[in-house]
Design a protein that fits this description.
Helices cover about 0% and strands about 40% of the residues. It has one domain. It is an all-beta fold.
Length: about 80
């Protein structure tokens, strides 16, 4: 499994695991993310979309992720 890497090195063409610190500095969360270049908005502002299970998609430009890693390999069936 790979180590966490700076978000600046993340591939912008695939879904990755990301780490987003919380806003009050008491930890953070690991989540599924995908880059959005903002091309369909009036004023493009690229950001990372975060997918949360029951909460849907979070478009949070004010609290961007700081690190990423690829998904681990799936387990092999016996």
């Amino acid at each position: 499994m790979s180590d966490w890497q700076p978000i600046e090195t993340a591939p912008e063409d695939q879904t990755v695991l990301g780490y987003r610190p919380d806003r009050i500095g008491r930890g953070g969360r690991v989540c599924v993310m995908r880059f959005d270049d903002g091309r369909f908005t009036r004023r493009p502002r690229p950001f990372w979309k975060t997918y949360h299970g029951g909460l849907g998609v979070q478009h949070d430009r004010d609290n961007p992720p700081t690190h990423w890693m690829p998904f681990p390999a799936a387990p092999v069936a016996p």
